[in-house]
Amino acid sequence: MRVSACAAFSRIRIGCVRYLNARPLIHCYDGPVVCEHPAALADAIARNEIDAGLVPIVELFASRRYLVVDEVAIASDGPVRSVILAHKKPLAQIPRIVADPASRTSVLLLRVLLAEFHGLNPELVEYDPDPNAARLLIGNQALAFRGRAPEFTFFDLGEEWTRRTSLPFVYAAWLLRPEIADATPSVPNAFRELKRDGLVALDAILAASDNDPEEAKIPRAIRQQYLRQNIRFDLGPREKEGMLRFRELLRKHALIGPAAGHPIEFV
């Protein structure tokens, strides 16, 4: 990692998700990082336990004000593969869904897709003893489940979003507490630099994932396709339009308040 980025991060606390899709955004940083699930990172930045975090974008629609690092995101523009509803019954016949509580964005995206485009509002629960129950899965768990449960049908949330809206979907972005961005203006550029270096290092990232006990459960070809084709790391005009469309639909279906959150600010 270049010296400029190291210097920018020397005084801030960084949190990042544990998933394979985040590796290109943090791989080239060798400083301390809090690794957690998305919802836990959202809570950590809200409690002032970290200064910057790769956090679900729904946190931008809440009451706290954050700044968003421009040009960097975890997004998809078509099939994402790692945010899926696994089910056996037709969608209209599913009374309840076991929802992974680790990602608030994915839960709300599922609610929006089912309500807006299918007219459905199933109950979301955290547990169902039925092994055939429909379930929302995210991240590495979703990628691994797809390979070992061929009896399920997979409703890819990223694919459905883009098919219905013609827009990318943004799952997470680097959020900064405003006082940190003000005190250390080089931080956003450092995160952009990390992304650039990480994308160059994809071969090394894939090789490292071979030695990860959880990621190694996912076939190497799937991991390679996932990082090179399914996941997008840009946050440009179309991704921002997708974020605004998501917020609009959340408001329409009363999943957030009509005036929730601050204007989205990019740095």
* CA-based shape: globular
Largest sheet: 6 strands, mixed
Spans of at least 5 consecutive residues with low confidence: none
Distance between the termini: 21 Å
Identify the CATH homologous superfamily of the largest domain.
Periplasmic binding protein-like II
From the alpha-carbon coordinates, what is the Rg to the nearest angstrom? 18 Å
In round numbers, the mean pLDDT is: 92
Specify the CATH architecture of the largest domain.
3-Layer(aba) Sandwich
How many domains?
2
Helix- and strand-based class? alpha/beta
| Percentage of residues in strands | 15-25%
Can you walk through the features of this model?
- By secondary structure, the chain is of the alpha/beta class.
- The chain folds into two domains: 162 residues, D-Maltodextrin-Binding Protein, domain 2 (3-Layer(aba) Sandwich), CATH 3.40.190; 83 residues, Periplasmic binding protein-like II (D-Maltodextrin-Binding Protein, domain 2), CATH 3.40.190.10.
- It has eleven helices and eleven strands.
- It has a six-stranded mixed beta sheet with strand order 2-1-3-10-4-11.
- Strand 6, helix 4 and strand 7 form a beta-alpha-beta unit.
- Helix 1 packs across helix 8 and helix 4 crosses helix 6.
- The longest helix is centred in the last third of the chain and has 16 residues.
- The radius of gyration is 18 Å and the shape is globular.
